[in-house]
Design goal:
Blueprint (H helix, E strand, L loop, with lengths): L1 E4 L6 E3 L2 E3 L6 E4 L1 H10 L21 H9 L7 E7 L1 E2 L11 E2 L4 H20 L5 E9 L7 H14 L1 E12 L6 H9 L4 E7 L3 H7 L5 H14 L3 E8 L6 H12 L5 E6 L21 H17 L3 E3 L3 E3 L4 H4 L3 E3 L2 E3 L6 E4 L4 E4 L2 E5 L3 H9 L5 E6 L2 H16 L1 E3 L8 H12 L3 E4 L2 E4 L7 H6 L17
Parallel strand pairs: 5-8, 5-17, 6-7, 8-9, 9-10, 10-11, 11-12
Antiparallel strand pairs: 1-4, 2-3, 12-14, 13-14, 15-16, 18-19, 19-20, 21-23, 22-23
Length: 469
């Protein structure tokens, strides 16, 4: 076994990873843990849904969606997700559905259509519903003007009843945020902000076309705190060009100095055949599989040392945050403490999750706007859930969120799945305790591989997914 220390002083060589030492930080890396990560590091879904989005079909459309909406229980609060598919510049690592715009006119037109869709949704529901959570994602919701923020919240309030503890959460880009924008968020009742950071290192930022110095992010955090918005998440990445174990530990320390309540640690997925702008990234500067795993392990260990609790396989939260002390769920935004059984997607490409199944809006901006303008709920495809889907979804969700799952119907009901898991059991990554499956702490980074054993659709299109680590 090799003790790898990071950040200043003596150099230690760990196979192909060289880093500086710091007596404040030590993390244990063994050749066996590295070999296991490489052994199981294969493309698997992130399981923000089951079945996953590649297995949605046009068999589910607007008619089915309207039926599902009419069947919802009005006593149970909804969650809403609103997609804003615009950015001021393209980050070359990006895998989101977004469009670069230089003028505000397309954004303003889009907002008008989202507001109309909100009205169509409200009309399709059996009565006025409570809402416990609203999340704006993108793209970049920071593209919206303060006036459009006020309009959107006003329209939501006119159609729904916000619960007393409603959480309004927004993804924020410090490069385009202004102090006036931050105060507009606070005035609209926004209580949580997710800040995209990825990496503070100037060389890495230049390589991914996202120039965002630490001082810029710190300034925006200061504005948020002054406005009373203290529930702050930060997104970091490993596996980016020019990153090292040393540099990802530096980015963790810098991020934590800004006191985020949550940190998401994502691995960069290089898929230039799907996202052509990723061809701008120099593949020779990307870390190999060994280095990626070393970066992830170092960042994870540092976050835990700094007082964050590991949630699932890539999120971290301070003990006082709801993600650390409530029941954790997984949806299309990742890990969340939101326990609503219905998540409604609004805007182009948004995905909704209902008790009966999943639906997705038109991804094309033109098609989305045409459908809404014609008075249609802009559904393009979806997936209804069978009883077997629901049982497997629950097992996968429990594994992804809590690292353990009770096998519905008992272990004998899942003999083929357990057979597929035998290699992970032999390697100490998964344990079977009666009818309960448990992912060990060593297996946490590979929990997606364990979950994939229960995915009956995976053989169809598995190459569309990112690797496990």
């Amino acid at each position: 076994m090799i003790w790898v220390k990071a950040r200043a002083g003596v150099c230690v060589l760990s196979w192909r990873t060289i880093c500086r030492c710091d007596p404040k930080l030590k993390y244990l890396m063994t050749r066996s843990s590295l070999s296991l990560a490489l052994k199981y590091d294969r493309p698997v879904p992130r399981y923000t849904s089951y079945p996953t989005a590649p297995h949605f079909s046009d068999n589910v459309g607007e008619e089915a969606y309207r039926t599902w909406l009419a069947e919802l229980d009005p006593t149970k609060p909804l969650s809403l997700y609103i997609h804003v598919p615009f950015c001021a510049a393209m980050c070359w690592f990006c895998g989101c559905n977004t469009k670069i715009v230089a003028r505000y006119d397309p954004v303003a037109s889009y907002v008008d259509h989202v507001l109309k869709e909100i009205g169509l949704l409200a009309d399709a529901l059996p009565r006025r519903f409570p809402v416990a959570h609203v999340h704006w994602g993108g793209g970049s919701p920071t593209m919206l003007t303060p006036e459009d923020w006020a309009r959107m919240v006003e329209v939501l309030n006119s159609h729904f009843d916000f619960t007393g503890d409603v959480e309004l959460a927004v993804e924020l880009d410090p490069r385009t945020a202004t102090e006036a924008y931050v105060h507009a968020l606070a005035a609209a009742g926004v209580s949580r902000v997710s800040i995209g950071v990825q990496d503070f290192d100037a060389r890495v930022q230049e390589a991914i076309n996202r120039i965002q110095p630490y001082d810029m992010t710190a300034q925006v955090v200061g504005w948020l705190q002054e406005a009373g918005t203290t529930a702050i998440n930060m997104d970091l990445m490993y596996g980016l060009p020019h990153q090292t174990v040393e540099s990802v530990i530096d980015q963790v320390d810098l991020a934590v100095s800004l006191e985020p309540q949550r940190v998401a640690l994502f691995g960069y997925a290089h898929v230039p055949w799907m996202k052509t702008h990723q061809k701008m990234i120099d593949e020779a500067a990307l870390p190999d599989a060994e280095a990626r795993f070393a970066q992830f392990e170092a960042a994870r260990a540092r976050l835990i040392e700094l007082g964050y609790m590991a949630v699932g396989f890539d999120h971290f939260a301070l003990p006082g945050d709801s993600l650390a002390n409530k029941s954790v769920q997984r949806n299309f935004q990742g890990y969340t403490s939101d326990d609503a059984e219905t998540l409604i997607g609004l805007g182009a490409s948004s995905i909704g999750s209902l008790p009966q199944g999943y639906v997705q809006n038109q991804p094309s901006l033109t098609s989305y706007k045409e459908a809404v303008q014609a008075g249609h709920l802009p559904i393009v495809k979806g997936r209804s859930l069978s009883e077997d889907d629901r049982e497997r979804r629950d097992i996968i969700n429990d594994l992804m969120c809590t690292l353990r799952a009770d096998l519905a119907g008992g272990r004998d009901h899942y003999k083929p799945e357990l057979k597929r898991l035998e290699p992970l059991m032999d390697d100490g990554l998964v344990e079977l305790q009666g009818d309960r499956l448990v992912v060990t702490e060593e297996g946490r980074p590979l929990v997606r591989v364990a979950a994939a054993a229960f995915d009956t659709y995976l053989s169809k299109g598995s190459g569309r997914h990112s690797k496990a680590v």
